[in-house]
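Hello,

Our lab assistant flagged a job as stuck in the queue for most of the afternoon. It eventually completed. Since we weren't sure the result was trustworthy after the delay, we are filing this so someone can double-check. Below is the sequence as submitted and the structure that was eventually returned. Let us know if re-running is recommended.
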Amino acid sequence: MVWQLDDDLWFPNPRWGEDDGLVAIGGDLSVERLLLAYSNGFFPWYAFQMEREPHWYCPLDRYVIFPHEIHVSHSMRQLIRQRKYEVTVNQDFDGVIRGCATAQGRNEESGAWLGPNIIEAFTRLHRLGYATSVEVWERQDADKPRPDSPSVNAQGRRLVGGLYGVTLRRAFFGESMFSQVPNASKLALIHLAKAMETIGGHFIDCQFETPLFKSMGGRHITYDRYMDILNSHPQDTSSQP
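-- returned structure --
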């Protein structure tokens, strides 16, 4: 069953939804509705070129990465040691979300979901501290790396990958990632997991299983366990890594 939302802030029981996780259609993308959605395991996902209303998903089979279980392959360890790229947090949210929208011509596909309304909604969340970006920058001179300096991270460097998502209750709800060079999104994900482990973060919600997430330590958990973990610190609102 798929429910039609109205102007009130509510979501139905996800156990009543479709097998693919679709539970409801409609409502809006306000900050209040988005926070309610993610607090209950829902996320918006719809083809903006074809659908006029948000579609809300809440799969009962969740795919997550626990920060301490992130798998870093030998080749990725070598890449990190080379210091060819620099990874930052929240230095270019706009660049990351637009990179996710347009990389490899995604925005031209009929099923594209990261449209203007989604970009605007998550940018609002970011400004309020509820959405985070991780940026991967290509250094100007990879042979002569210098110590990290937050004041100049984006100056003279090219954004070549990253990811963004919602940060709430010590969890990170991944939305999208992109790479303009090999392994940039993997670098961003590793950095995110290590940062979350430092602050005691619970999990990275991958939404669905993909070969990349599986190779990096992702695993399935039930919706009940997912919510138990998420509600273990209900007083936490934003949890920036």
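-- support follow-up --
The delay was a queue issue, not a problem with the job. The result is valid. Residues 161 and 179 are 4 Å apart (CA to CA). The helical segments are 31-39, 74-82, 93-102, 116-127, 184-199, 211-215, 223-230.
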